[in-house]
Design brief:
about 35% helix; elongated; two-stranded antiparallel ribbon; 3 helices; alpha+beta; about 100 residues
């Protein structure tokens, strides 16, 4: 589930659990980090973890996701570039 959420959102997904035992019952499980391409890059029951998350990996996952055709991405980029060139704010007060 975590990996599929990472793929569809093209973002890192972090799931933090409590890997402890309370009243003799294990609660939760390991904490997980899934990369934008769906690979689980970290799994731990340690109380503290540090994970290297690179933005470049997210950009690559967005470009490779089949739900957004490359033509649509090119048009979107062209529109954003045109707005940026004009200096027009993307959103502003409406009359």
């Amino acid at each position: 589930m975590i990996a599929s959420n990472a793929v569809t959102s093209a973002a890192y997904v972090v799931s933090i659990n409590r890997p402890t035992v309370e009243f003799g019952v294990p609660i939760g499980g390991p904490s997980l980090v899934a990369a934008p391409d769906g690979e689980v890059i970290h799994e731990s029951t340690a109380p503290l973890s540090i994970v290297d998350a690179r933005a470049r990996r997210g950009r690559g996952a967005r470009l490779g996701y089949p739900a957004v055709p490359r033509v649509a991405l090119r048009r979107l980029r062209a529109s954003v570039a045109a707005i940026a060139a004009r200096g027009t704010p993307a959103a502003g007060p409406r009359d």
